[in-house]
Design goal:
The protein has about 170 residues and is an all-alpha fold.
Length: about 170
């Protein structure tokens, strides 16, 4: 991982020298994702926050949404669901405001997945269903299938919870 970190830091330096803000936010995002893999959530969040600022400076709505989504994912990985949900919702609002429909279904799926992890199956199902609606509107068959698979899994989990236990 050290060589990968070095590569990302080297790329970051080059993008900064070239004054390429789009490359810079992507390199910062790469460093943040590497920190998540290393379970250094504080470093990850810091990198993603910096990536968001640079993406904002570059007028990249996509970069800002990605950075906030990755902040949410870092909090989710740390099991800080309150902060994760705040950031997922913020990213979702940004995606909707920017008419970034591809990110809308992804974020709805992310939120659904987080609710599923917390055992809140109704919330999970509701967000997967909203994501499926967006995916259908986009005609994205792969996204539709992914969300249907998620919904089927939640449906099975829900049915298992409702199944009465046998007593003798």
């Amino acid at each position: 991982m050290c060589s990968r970190r070095w590569q990302y830091q080297e790329a970051l330096q080059i993008y900064r020298e070239l004054r390429d803000a789009n490359g810079e936010w992507r390199a910062l995002d790469d460093l943040g994702r590497l920190a998540v893999k290393q379970r250094d959530m504080a470093q990850a969040v810091s990198q993603f926050q910096e990536a968001r600022k640079v993406a904002q400076r570059a007028s990249s709505r996509e970069g800002q949404v990605i950075a906030v989504e990755h902040i949410a994912a870092a909090y989710r990985a740390a099991k800080d669901y309150r902060k994760a949900l705040q950031h997922y919702q913020q990213a979702l609002k940004m995606a909707r405001d920017g008419r970034l429909r591809d990110y809308e279904w992804i974020l709805l799926g992310d939120i659904g997945g987080m609710y599923e992890e917390m055992g809140q199956l109704k919330g999970a199902m509701a967000h997967y269903q909203q994501g499926l609606t967006v995916a259908r509107q986009l005609g994205d068959k792969d996204a539709e299938q992914q969300l249907r698979d998620n919904m089927a899994r939640v449906g099975k989990e829900s049915a298992a919870e409702k199944k009465p236990t046998r007593t003798r």
